[in-house]
# Entry
Amino acid sequence: MTCPPVINIRLIDGPLPTQHGNAEPPAHGTGASLVFEGIIREQEDGRRLRSIVYDVYEPMATRELTRLASELAATHALIAVHVEHSRGEVPVGRCSFRLRIESAHRKEALSAMDEFITRMKRDVPIWKVPRWADDARPA
Amino acid sequence: MSADDSRRNSNPDYDADVTIRVLLFGVLAEELGKREVVLTLPNSARLSDANPALAAEFPSRAALLRTARLSLNAQFAAPTSPLREGDELAVIELVGGG
# Structure
């Protein structure tokens, strides 16, 4: 009997904690485990950033992330999809998004990784609001 | 007696307007200086009828709002979905997590 995929969605206030040593062990049957981390760049469009504020529409954001993860798990035969996304302010150099995909073989995970991020940026109600280094406004 | 009461009493088929809330997020909310706007639309209004109403409310962003994707009660919905009193809409444009 095939196990249903593991889907884990977490929205976290502020920067994501580092993962080293804290990650759950891979789900049963995993042969490939990919981790993508999105880091706040120092510059955007040639202008220096101080931070990004993530504006999140809940509960729709969690629902759409869950829907996306479940759909890709089904179409790419994934074993597990773990999503962590920041809300609120994340300073330059810190992690705001982490996607871990597990599958039996690398090709499914590699393909699903890019599709997940592309569709998330299009369909999930999370907005980036830049805070510029030369802008004194509070977050 | 208000004008609404008068219309309702003289026409048994008269239906009251619907009042809905539209949520704004991100840079758009900052630009417009609001995170929420209340609109009153005819009782027969569909989701897509909120687009021109939003464009009229915020002329500086009319082009975007006329065609903006709108959610209905925190879900994507067909533009023809009927609107009901108290519905919560949101403008799902310019998104970009990650």
